[in-house]
Amino acid sequence: MSGIVGLTRRLSVVSAVSRDPFWALATQVVTSGANFLTTVVMVRVMGLTEFGRFSIAFLLIMVVRNFQLSVVLTPMSTVGPKLSGARQNAYRGFLLANSLVFSLAASSLIALGSCLAATILELNWMWTLFPGLAAANFTSNMAEFYRRHCFNQKDRQSAMLVEVVRYLVQLAVLGVLALGAHHWLSPSTGLYTLALGGAAGCLVGVRRYGVMRWNAPFNRAIWPRHWSLIKWLTPGIVFQTLLGPGCIVFASFFFSEAMVGALRAMQNISNVLQTPINGMQNIAANTAAHKWFKWGAEVLKHYLLKMAMAMVGFSIILTIIVIMYRNFIISITMGLHEDGLGILLALFCIANVAASINFMSTVGLQAMEKGKPITVGSAVGAVLSPFLIVVLVPATGIYSVPLARILAVMVSTAILLWSLRRELSWHQKDAQGPTFMCKGKL
């Protein structure tokens, strides 16, 4: 009888774990699909020049999102699973305060920065964007916070609901503008559309957030654990930003707004390949931290290897398909027929394959709360990325952006893999797992 009970418990655990990737992937399909449809509508209605301006603003939001990952989301995913259930209410109060402060500060800074850029660089069109940019940044950050918190609490349906409501509102407003009042559709109204969608997602997230309370002693006790991650992850995020959205922002100094729009459009198509990788970001850090804390290095190693093989294999297959039919895909989605876009798309797809290995290496180091190797690896890649763009621009033109990303990510990944292997080998000798972390458990 006890054997049957034990088997039933194990099966229930396996069933719960197997649902995590499904819901993570399903949520990311909604996100990627909505962003892709938004790009298609804007490119077709506004053209590449106006879409290029919107893309610069949108990429600034993505830059802030990266910092949100290091300041709020990754510490939440790493520290949260190690807290006892009795402390979760206080932790929710701590997290919400962190997220609100970060989102307000980031939105203020991004608005001020866009005004300074408009003045210094004489970009008159930027003046019309900063109110919508600040609003879109705030609601997007908060909606992402609520979504990730739902995943961390294993409330997968609520995480999905936040995304579905958010993007249904966004696409509905965008559709009305595109079909009934396309002359009103501009980079500025596009940003307000993002803000409305984010606000709708926040309304759902607030209702699903759970009971919370403010506990000052607890906050003082938990902050050092967050800070130990933030102080290493934030510099790393600066470098990862230069490897990611920063590449195209940097490219805007060399290319016209229409060419920036083309870069962003091709990157958006290639990001469909990132769906499994982005989906796993919702749960990978939390799952890896749990495995490391409970079972140690050997289990963490097998998890990382399994996930890396699955994501890389899937990305390679889709990359081959996209490369074979690249011109058809570009034509039927964006309605573009310019020469060279197919090669640009293929290069972005190859960059995504390299990024998938980089991602799992980063997750492994985050799970062990080893932020320094992430910072070092990202720093090397970040220095290489703009340098390679400058070097490659005369010979390769617009192709320099994805080429620089491929090379920089490969170098960064090599450093991360070496660091991860060293850390796993060091801890693998201890069959009881990382006991030093248990001592800091609250």
Automatic annotation (TrEMBL):
Protein name (Swiss-Prot/TrEMBL): Uncharacterized protein
Stored InterPro entries: Poly_Biosynth_Transport
Membrane topology: Multi-pass membrane protein
Membrane-crossing residue ranges in chain numbering: 21-42, 54-73, 94-119, 125-143, 164-185, 191-211, 232-255, 303-328, 340-361, 373-395
GO cellular component entries: plasma membrane
Record's subcellular location: Cell membrane
Broad class of the protein's primary localization: membrane
Keywords from the UniProt entry: Cell membrane, Membrane, Transmembrane, Transmembrane helix
Keyword match Transmembrane helix: yes
